[in-house]
Design brief:
The complex is a heterodimer of chains A (about 400) and B (about 270). Chain A is about 45% helix and about 20% strand. Chain A is α/β, with parallel strands linked by helices and about 400 residues long. In chain A, the strands form 4 sheets. In chain A, strands 3-4-14-9-10-13 form a 6-stranded mixed sheet, sandwiched between helices. In chain A, a hairpin with a 2-residue loop joins β1 and β2. Chain B has a single domain, classed as TIM Barrel (Alpha-Beta Barrel), CATH 3.20.20.70. The chains are: A alpha/beta (about 400), B alpha/beta (about 270).
């Protein structure tokens, strides 16, 4: 288990209204005691295995590798999980914790809808009430996921304030939590927010890296040379990276490079240290400290801040952060579909796009694990619309 | 001038909140003057932030109107300086979110706020545990940093908050965000009583207060002041139908409301 830290170097902390200080302390206590008990772990492991579909395969992408002609590319297949992305690992973990804390209602924010769907799923599984906050811009882009959440019994509240996207959905979920914590647990969907959320999410997602580590050793007889994951808030990335942080494995987090003008590159662009959503971290803001509106072709990476542990890993240089543009991600989306028969989520396609470049540069004899954090079904309509007549 | 001066007159102080720039800088200046002429004992002067997580719908909308109208922290402080120049001399606390201060550099920004004429600072996303750097910077700048207490703050925590705050304790009357409510909760009245027992620091109650009955209840419980934000925004926002405000009507409605509140606040304690 990862040790709970309030700060990762200069980043993290608990910048919340006074009303939330008590509930966050209660959450931290529950996680540190019940969350680490054998009975909790047994129940979680069983659900991850029998309900969510763990372990996920580590798949050697033979045709993609030979197409690129360099390092061996392995895909950690989180896309095969129930609900189609890694989000379910955290949603089930936190929902189980909430249930054991005696909470009866779950709330969450969602951008693309994947975390909202995962939370609504967990709520259905545990028989809990559920409300999901989603920006009106995102709800229009991801209408199918709105329907999916409602089908699962969740109430979807459309957020019309600010930029009407993920950051505003987080604001609204936090406001709800400030008033409702007695009965409600707020499942933050990424490794961000006030302490202890970044640590809790990292722990629940680190199952990805723990499995991948065993699997790559079984396949290659040694650890990988590289690990690559996309970084929105950064939960799939920290989930893959955490179990390798002490090893001689080079790691790359891939941010959304956007369309050249607009982007969501906090660590590789012009992000500055600041405070948003309860944490000190790198974020995109204007000269006055007002939070910027971001852009990415993938809603899941379209967020102006980043999990605090990533800010710290970026400063220390332990993880190198890079970016992939909208068009690079789209190319990778097509390439992986054609070469491997795997349609990646646009978020994960950013990681694939960078891994392809890395594989060529690293050359034969090396190996790369790419976290394929989600599947692309949710993106088909969006891609078709974006490409218009250009698609095949 | 010290913030606590407003709360140590042996009566309940009336401290209205204004969102600077909503819908224009000119209106804010007139609004503050109107409030003070109506008897306000202190002003909470809001510098809008793009992501106000402690605020409910009313102040979110006010912040958005202000930002859309082009207000910046620099312009807001210019308005504050004008307020002072116009002869307003009641204590003023600037209210904003931490990123606005942090982004500009704490020392630099706090010095500017002080120079513009503020006496104190209210930052709703900096709780006690994260307040050390801000308290240090406030001491250097000569500003009083007001900390919050909520109905779920324990007695032990209340004592720590009372020891660390300056000016007054900002007691939040609801669990949740700002915004007018119909009733006063027993937990809120309990909070006022608990805080008064925990320390001699003055205490003002805010969040959710908009009716005379709220003020009476908190006065009776021992509050040294009440803070009204959304209640006032709701009054003048009715006169912004198409984005342009009818200032005359807006200000006369606000004045009537403020005088009513001041009368209840200032009547002699039994």
């Amino acid at each position: 288990m990862i040790k709970m830290k309030k700060y990762f170097g200069k980043y993290g902390g608990q910048f919340v209204p006074e009303a939330l200080v008590g509930p966050l302390a209660e959450l931290e206590r529950a996680f540190a005691t019940d969350g680490k008990s054998k009975s909790f772990q047994r129940e979680l492991d069983s659900l991850l295995k029998n309900y969510a579909g763990r372990p996920t395969p580590l798949y050697f992408a033979r045709r993609l590798t030979s197409h690129e002609g360099g390092a061996k590319i392995y895909l950690k297949r989180e896309d095969l999980l129930h609900t189609g992305a890694h989000k379910i690992n955290n949603a089930i973990g936190q929902a189980l914790l909430a249930k054991r804390m005696g909470k009866t209602r779950l709330i969450a924010e969602t951008g693309a809808g994947q975390h909202g769907v995962a939370t609504a799923t967990a709520a259905a599984l545990f028989g809990m009430e559920c409300e999901i906050y989603m920006g009106s811009v995102d709800a229009a882009r991801q209408a199918q996921n709105v329907y999916r959440m409602r089908l699962l019994g969740a109430r979807v509240s459309i957020v019309d304030s600010g930029s009407r996207t993920l950051k505003d959905a987080v604001n609204e979920a936090m406001r709800d939590y400030c008033a409702s914590f007695a009965s409600t647990h707020y499942i933050i969907g990424s490794a961000l927010g006030p302490h202890p959320y970044p640590s809790i999410v990292a722990v629940f997602q680190s199952v990805i890296g723990r499995e991948a580590r065993k699997q790559i050793v079984a396949a290659e007889g040694r650890l990988p040379d590289f690990a690559v994951a996309c970084v929105g808030g950064g939960s799939n990335a920290i989930g893959l990276f955490a179990p390798f942080l002490q090893d001689d494995v080079k790691m790359f987090g891939v941010e959304a490079g956007g369309d050249g003008k607009r982007h969501a590159a906090r660590l590789t662009g012009n992000g500055r240290r600041g405070v948003l959503h309860g944490m000190m971290t790198y974020l995109l803001e204007n000269a006055d400290g007002q939070i910027s509106e971001t852009h990415s072709i993938s809603a899941g990476l379209d967020y102006p801040a980043v999990g605090p542990q990533h800010s710290s890993l970026s400063d220390s240089g332990r993880v190198k952060y890079v970016s992939a543009s909208d068009s690079e991600a789209l190319s990778a989306f097509h390439l992986l579909s054609e070469k491997e028969g795997i349609i990646p989520a646009l978020e994960s396609a950013h990681a694939v796009a960078f891994a392809i470049k890395l594989a060529k540069k690293a050359g034969k004899g090396k190996s790369i694990i790419v976290n394929l954090s989600g599947r692309g079904d949710k993106d088909l309509e969006h891609v078709a619309r974006t490409e218009g007549g250009k698609g095949t | 001038m010290s913030l606590s001066d407003a709360f140590r007159k042996g009566q309940c102080a009336f401290m209205p909140y204004v969102c600077c720039g909503d819908p224009s800088a000119e209106f804010t200046l007139k609004l503050v003057k109107t409030l003070v002429q109506s008897g306000a004992d202190a002003i909470e002067f809001g510098i809008p932030f793009s992501d106000p997580i402690a605020d409910g719908k009313t102040i979110q909308a006010a912040s958005q109107r202000a930002l859309a109208g082009g207000i910046t922290p620099g312009k807001a402080l210019f308005v504050l300086a004008k307020v002072r120049k116009s002869g307003v001399c009641v204590p003023i606390a600037v209210m904003t979110y931490y990123n606005i201060l942090f982004s500009a550099g704490l020392g630099k920004m706090l010095a500017k706020i002080k120079r513009a004429g503020a006496d104190g600072l209210i930052v709703p996303d900096v709780p006690l545990g994260e307040s050390a750097p801000l308290r240090r910077a406030c001491r250097i700048a000569g500003l009083e940093l007001v900390l919050f207490a909520t109905p779920n703050s324990s007695d032990a925590r209340l004592r720590k908050i009372a020891a660390a705050t300056s000016g007054f304790i900002y007691a939040v009357s609801v669990l949740g965000t700002t915004g007018a409510r119909s009733n006063v909760s027993p937990q809120a009245l309990q909070l006022v009583k608990r805080a008064k027992q925990a320390s001699a620091m003055p205490l003002a109650v805010g969040f959710g207060i908009s009716l005379p009955s709220h003020v009476r209840a908190f006065r009776k419980a021992g509050a040294d002041g009440v803070i009204v934000g959304s209640g006032i925004v709701n009054i003048y926002a009715r006169h912004i139908p198409g984005g342009k405000i009818n200032e005359r009507l807006a200000l006369s409605d606000v004045a009537r409301f403020a005088k009513g509140m001041v009368n209840i606040c200032h009547c002699k304690r039994r």
